[in-house]
């Protein structure tokens, strides 16, 4: 899920994400096998990245949607929510420290082996 830059600038990120989640939720019978990826559309392939706080806020909104819908707190806590907006070695540590970011969806940075190892290590630190 994710928003266009104009939607973020208009303060509609949460509304857009909730609408996208609602559209998919009707098709999901078992949330135990679901991973939700938040990727702001404006960050795809642009090298732009949401600030760690912006990413955390969007992830918290997704978790809140899961908890407040009929899915409940247990589902909200167990569903993995990953971030995929220009994750790189130099921003992965700070992103990984955010409470509601459970991992990463890595694109082009996965082609740089040393950087990808750093990203993996950042994600693994979260588990400790």
Explain what you see.
This protein has 128 residues and is mostly helical. The protein has helices at 5-9, 13-25, 52-68, 72-78, 89-96, 113-126, and strands spanning 35-38, 80-83. A two-stranded parallel sheet has the order 1-2. α3 (52-68) packs antiparallel against α4 and α5 packs parallel to α6. It is globular, with a radius of gyration of 14 Å. The mean pLDDT is 90.
The percentage helix is 40-55%
Helix count, per DSSP?
6
SSE sequence, one letter per element: HHEHHEHH
Please tell me the overall pLDDT.
90
- Measured by DSSP, the beta-strand proportion falls in 5-15%
Shape: globular
Distance between the termini: 27 Å
Which terms summarize this structure?
single chain; 128 residues; mainly alpha; two-stranded parallel ribbon
List the SSEs and their pairings:
Blueprint: H1 5-9, H2 13-25, E1 35-38, H3 52-68, H4 72-78, E2 80-83, H5 89-96, H6 113-126
Helix pairs in contact: 2-3, 3-4, 5-6
TL;DR of this structure?
The protein has 128 residues and is mainly alpha-helical. Helix content is 50%, strand content 6%.
């Amino acid at each position: 899920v994710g928003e266009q830059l104009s939607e973020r600038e208009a303060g509609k990120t949460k509304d857009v994400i909730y609408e996208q989640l609602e559209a998919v939720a009707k098709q999901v019978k078992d949330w135990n096998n679901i991973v939700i990826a938040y990727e702001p559309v404006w960050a795809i392939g642009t090298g732009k990245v949401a600030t760690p706080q912006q990413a955390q806020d969007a992830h918290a909104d997704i978790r809140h949607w899961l908890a407040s819908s009929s899915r409940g707190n247990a589902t909200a806590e167990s569903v993995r929510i990953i971030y995929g907006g220009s994750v790189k070695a130099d921003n992965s540590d700070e992103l990984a420290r955010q409470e509601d970011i459970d991992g990463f969806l890595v694109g082009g940075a996965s082609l740089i082996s040393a950087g990808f190892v750093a990203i993996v290590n950042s994600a693994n630190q979260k588990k400790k």
